[in-house]
Amino acid sequence: MMTEPDNTGLNLSPPADEPARQFYFIGKCAELIKKRSEKLGRPMRSMIQTFGCQMNERDSEKLAGVMAQMGLEKAGSEEEADILVYNTCTVRENADKRLYGRLGVCKAYKQSDKEMIIALCGCMMQEEHVVERIKASYPYVDIIFGTFNIFSFPELLYKRLGSGERVIDIRKGADRIVEELPSERKYSFKTGVNIMYGCDNFCTYCIVPYVRGRERSREPKEIIREIERAASEGVVEIMLLGQNVNSYGKGLDTDITFAELLSEAAGVDGIKRVRFMTSHPKDLSPELIKVIAGNEKIARHIHLPLQSGSDRILEAMNRHYTREKYIALAEMIRAEIPDVSITSDIIVGFPGESAGDVDDTIDVIERVRFDGAFTFEYSPRTGTPAARMEQLDRAFVQSNFDRVLHTVQRISKEQAGRFEGRVMEVLIEGEDEKDPLRYTGRISQNNVVHFPKEGYDIGDFVNVSLDECRGFYYNGKVSGMK
Length: 482
Ligand code: SF4
What we know:
The protein is an alpha/beta fold. The protein has three domains: about 20-170, Methylthiotransferase, N-terminal domain (Rossmann fold); about 190-420, tm_1862 like domain (pyruvate-formate lyase- activating enzyme, Alpha-Beta Horseshoe), CATH 3.80.30; about 420-480, CATH 2.40.50.140. The protein contains 13 helices and 19 strands. It has helices spanning about 20-40, 55-70, 95-110, 130-135, 155-165, 210, 220-230, 260-265, 285-295, 310-315, 325-335, 355-370, 395-415; strands at about 45-50, 75, 85-90, 115-120, 145, 165-170, 190-195, 195, 215, 235-240, 275, 300-305, 340-350, 370-375, 425-430, 435-445, 450, 460-470, 475-480. It has a six-stranded parallel β-sheet, sandwiched between helices. Strands 15-16-17-19-18 form a five-stranded mixed barrel. A three-stranded parallel β-sheet has the order 7-10-11, sandwiched between helices.
């Protein structure tokens, strides 16, 4: 919710406690932004570009919230922005390359507008070699901060606006979780809610534990309060976010499991659908499956990263489950939750992976029958154990990747067709990008549906008959309001 910045006490020294300290700097920035806007003869404008996962999306909503409260308007394009923020991702090499590509373009922006402020944050900034490279080769980047102190952006921006000097603040870990700063939702009807940060699993290919730190759960009371507030502001769908939601609750004084939290979240008045992301197969409990099965408000969709179907590779990845355990878990989920959709992530080309290992992965895909899966070529991340292992020939990886991708596509297409002809509940998410006379929405299983507008609004739940499956989406028509 947006409120006017509170300017009382701005002449005093900044409070030491958070979030009071950042509210103080929001006020200080607002003063400077107002002055600069008057000088420019127009409001100052900002833009945030977000790469990567839902965690980053949520962090960007927080940055957008504080910038709006400072009085910054939204820029229509990067060139138009007075403050341009890139919230970066480092999960794969491609993401890194994209950022360096964007920074090349930023040089031209800076040449035509020397006052423009360019800020970088997110996972990539937690990597020392990245920050060193940016310091050395991109002198026009003004602010660099990391994942542990996203909350301190107002303070860093104030330093930059006041001094004109480059500001770098990267922390090695989080000594506290600072929430309760303003946040601006991308969608009025749905939002993500962080329930935990970091990850303790140390899968050997993954950079997350190094850049997002060790696992920290938020207090359940705070989470529920945030959901209640969102519901009172019109949010009907929430997604509980964490790198490994199934281990939620560890280390808290309150004795609570993820299944219990999920159930409480679904019980909040006004919330009509709850999703969650991401589950680790090793921690997904029968209790959780029961809670989902017994509560219609919880989406019939479980994203359950497989990564590999070969026991040898799963062990080298440090995943702590076998192919048979994964298959048994998926079978239990399908038996207990009718119509559930199971999606996955699969990595092809992990060091040491043979054609036989890939056959094992394909076998699991065929047995579990994924409703969808993101398939990635393995890409080494500096600092992880797998990056130090001997890497595979790229052509070999490419041919294995193609085999896996074809299997995933064939099966998910067959799976998608299973709802054709049924009437299902759809949350209207927006206008169809290709046809302004139609809406786009999602069923509980997460499949996309397009249908003609018939007097309903974005954010409404409607019953839609799924007349035609077009591979990965449906065309349908409304058969009534939910
Ligand atoms: S569970 Fe593994 S893959 Fe997922 S974030 Fe943690 S370390 Fe990375």
